[in-house]
Each structure stands twice: as C-alpha cells, then as structure tokens.
C-alpha cells in the first residue's frame, strides 16, 4: 500500500516556542491513520503544517509524491486534501447549502449535496438554516460535509468528536466507518480509543512534539496499555 502523505523530520513552532521535534508520519492510501496524544503535544500543529496553515522550520511534506513543504493552503487543497478543522469553523452567515457549495469541487461519481443530506438527514432538515443557528453537532456534520464536497483524496479530521453529545458522536463514528468502507484515506485526531480501535489501521502517538509510539491494528491491540500510559488514561 503506497503513501498518500509522507512527513519527514518535521520541526515547527510559534515564535520562539518549538512544538514539533522531528515528526515522521506516513499516511497510506485507503487506510485510516490516527494521530493521538494529550492536549498541547503537537497534534494540531502537525495538521496545520500539513494543510499549509503553518510553515515548517525544517523537514519535508510530500503529497502523492510531490514536495508540498510550506505550500499555501489552496495548493494543498488542490492536491486533494480536505480538512475538518478543530472547532468546526463553519461560515456562520451562510446557510447549510451555501456552506456546502462554498468550497465544493465537482468530481465524476463524487460527493454531491444529495449525498451529504442522505448521510446526514439532520442537515437536510436544516438546509436553509444559517451556520450560527446550528447546534455543535450539526456544525460538525456540516464541517464534514463541506470537506467531503471538495471530493478529497485524503480527509483530515482534527478532534473529530470533541465536545459532542453521545448520540451525535455515534452518528459521526458510523459515518467515518462508512467512509472507510469506500476506501477513502483518512487522517483522524480524536481521544476515544474504543471508537478509534473500530476503524483505525495505523496509529501514531505524539508526546511533547515527538512520535513516541507507532503501530498497526495488531500492535495496538497488544500494546494498548502502553499507549494509554502516554495518554494518562
């Protein structure tokens, strides 16, 4: 299985503060890759570098074999990456339909508005509502739908279910399982190990800006206690 993203020796930070210290990450085509760690360990910084929102201080990022180190966000999006950001960040003054259309990229056989509404019936019921009128769970559904409307080769989700009600979380996890079955490549940040274990193929644990544990499903099943130590569970 080839890699859609390869990150090598990534260093990054903010001002004088160094956050990442040589992160290596491989995201394979058709797999669900999970990046986990406690708050403040560098998960979001890694994603910001990948999506072109933060310029690395050192290291390299390649997408589908092309060097994309320090490329601007629109180039990363054109390369096939779709982001569901932490905090959802839907457009509050646009309707559900307008949010879905704002960054849409058509592809034959790809995601359409009808597909999104079929996947998330709650959004269909609220298609004329503005972003600020939606609940947190509905906003997260919309953020996922908006990213899918770009018809990405890799879907990146930062804190996919944080702060959501249990029923909404279950709906999101079910959707992610469906996406996995389609063969979509996914990079997922979340804290729920039980749910991650249902769908993840490869795991990376980040601690103080360094990858301290990595493994596939069989490794995680046998080494979960070690992973939980890093997460202080």
Describe the structure.
This protein starts with a strand and ends with a helix. β1 and β2 form a beta hairpin. The mean pLDDT is 93. It has 233 residues and is α/β, with parallel strands linked by helices. The protein is built from 9 helices and 10 strands. The chain has a domain at 1-80 and 184-233: P-loop containing nucleotide triphosphate hydrolases (Rossmann fold, 3-Layer(aba) Sandwich), CATH 3.40.50.300. The chain is globular, with a radius of gyration of 17 Å. The chain has a 6-stranded mixed beta sheet. α3 (96-102) runs parallel beside α6.
Compose a concise summary of this entry.
Helices cover 36% and strands 27% of the residues.
Mean pLDDT: 93
Uncertain runs are none
CATH architecture of the domain at 1-80 and 184-233: 3-Layer(aba) Sandwich
User: What's the tally of helices?
Assistant: 9
From the alpha-carbon coordinates, what is the Rg to the nearest angstrom? 17 Å
Report on the biggest sheet. 6 strands, mixed
Order of helices and strands: EEEHEEHEHHHHEHEHEEH
Strand content: 25-35%
Output the CATH topology of the domain at 1-80 and 184-233. Rossmann fold
In the CATH hierarchy, what is the superfamily of the domain at 1-80 and 184-233?
P-loop containing nucleotide triphosphate hydrolases
CATH class of the domain at 1-80 and 184-233: Alpha Beta
Question: Roughly what percent helix?
Answer: 25-40%
Strand line-up of the largest beta sheet:
6-7-8-3-9-10
Shape: globular
**End-to-end distance, in Å?**
32 Å
SS-based class: alpha/beta
Total number of strands: 10
